[in-house]
Amino acid sequence: MPGLEDLYREIILDHYRSPRNRGELESPPALRAEGFNPLCGDEVVVTARIEDGVLADIKIAGTGCSISQSSASLMSAAVKGRPLAEVRDVIATFKRMMSIHESTLPSDGPSGGEDAPADHGDEVEPEAIDVEALGELAALQGVVKFPVRIKCATLSWNTLAQGLDEAGAPA
């Protein structure tokens, strides 16, 4: 799996160095939501324009670590132009991926994957996630190995969901 991890690292760095959908839309009419991660100092501003039940445009602003900023860029590319129901599905799927146990990740050597202990006590087995269907978003799956970084990866996703909820966008 080293080749796959290298690819994922490159995707994260690419989105950090050249973020997609950077900036802010005029608000109003665009919805605007702000998120902050006090653990890391990450800040994100999500502005989005909804037209006829579709997330027609989205812009991301803010500062933070490479994980938070690349996740925001990946998110904006994944949801832009999609119907709101699909946007909410992508958000839910990404957040499920961020909550899976590290030992369920593909093995990349002696530190995880198949070599890790399988006993998780009374934990409920998480719903399976089709990582291939996530496309480039799968690059962030390794974040679960570093629990303190999960909040960095999910900041923009939670902020977008909050903005959609506050705007009364249909679920």
How would you describe what is shown here?
The longest helix is centred in the C-terminal third of the chain and has 20 residues. This protein starts with a helix and ends in a 5-residue tail after the last helix. The radius of gyration is 16 Å and the shape is globular. It is of the alpha+beta class and 171 residues long. 37% of the residues lie in helices and 16% in strands. The protein has a three-stranded antiparallel beta sheet with strand order 1-2-3, with helices on one face. The chain contains four helices and three strands, in the order αβββααα.
Feature tags:
171 residues; alpha+beta
Topology:
Elements: H1 2-17, E1 31-37, E2 42-51, E3 54-63, H2 66-79, H3 84-97, H4 147-166
Antiparallel strand pairs: 1-2, 2-3
Helix pairs in contact: 1-2, 2-4, 3-4
Radius of gyration: 16 Å
Low-confidence stretches: 107-121
Spatial ordering of strands, largest sheet? 1-2-3
- Beta-strand percentage? 15-25%
The H/E string reads HEEEHHH
Largest sheet descriptor:
3 strands, antiparallel
**Helix-strand category:** alpha+beta
Number of strands: 3
Distance between the termini: 37 Å
Roughly how much helix do the residues carry, as a percent range? 25-40%
- State the helix count: 4
The outline comes out as: globular
Average residue-wise pLDDT = 84
Short description:
With 171 residues, the protein is an alpha+beta fold.
